[in-house]
Amino acid sequence: MDLEVGPDGRARCGWSAGSDDYRDYHDSEWGRPVHGDVALFERISLEAFQSGLSWLTILRKRENFRAAFAGFQPAVVAAFDEEDVARLMADAGIVRNRRKIEATITNARALVDLRARGGSLDALFWGHRPPASERPRAMADVPTTTDESTALSRELKANGFVFVGPTTMYAAMQACGLVDDHVTGCHVVID
Fold first, then answer.
1. Domain-wise residue ranges, the chain
2. pLDDT band at 171 (very low <50, low <70, confident <90, very high)
3. How far apart are CA 139 and CA 85, in angstroms?
4. Cα(22)–Cα(128) distance, rounded to whole angstroms?
5. Taking a C-beta distance cutoff of 8 angstroms, is the pair 94, 64 a contact?
6. pLDDT reading at 191 higher than 80
7. By C-alpha distance, which of 26, 6, 46, 23 is closest to 181?
8. In whole angstroms, what is the distance from residue 82 CA to residue 88 CA?
9. Model pLDDT for residues 69-103, shown as the tens digit of each residue
10. Which CATH number fits domain 34-175: 3.30.1330.10, 1.10.340.30, 3.40.50.450, 3.40.50.300?
């Protein structure tokens, strides 16, 4: 379904139907520009945790993730050790996947290193923003990867990041406003 008319009479992207959490996320967050290393580190971490799961699962656990990962402060997470991994593996409030937990710690370390070299995740991420284009007419017109998400993935990996494949990065690009994939007719307007 490409569009869904909600209880408030507003047309939304069809994926947002069926849950107040999805509807709120769609209306207030998805596709709006996100800047700053901490905010972007959180988003790519959550996108990695979502891999293979429903985004609704991640949305409903987001506050638990923030608490478990020290607000996604890169320097704090970069210092996590095996005791922290064990603590996180025992935390029922998050997705307990060792590979994804370790990837988040690895990515925090990569971000700390990137900053130490004078770079930023914000500049790296937004440096792959594609030219503005028309909104997709239907969900079938929305790609799962693009040349830009592939290039972003490649550059992140070259900087030591993991669990940042082209599909995951395209989802992050959508969520963080690098592309506007709200379908034609959706009430959300991105400035």
1. 34-175
2. very high
3. 38
4. 27
5. yes
6. no
7. 26
8. 10
9. 999 999 999 999 999 999 999 999 999 999 999 99
10. 1.10.340.30
Q: Active site includes 170?
A: no
* Torsion of Cα atoms, 27 then 67 then 158 then 142, to 10°: -20
Write down the catalytic residue from 4, 15, 22, 25. 25
Percent of the chain with pLDDT over 90: 95
pLDDT tens-place string over residues 105-116:
999 999 999 999
| Dihedral, CA of residue 65, residue 66, residue 68 and residue 69, to nearest 10 | 110
What is the overall mean pLDDT for the chain? 96
Please pick, among 29, 55, 102, 155, the residue that the annotation labels catalytic: 55
Out of 47, 126, 148, 170, which one is annotated catalytic? 47
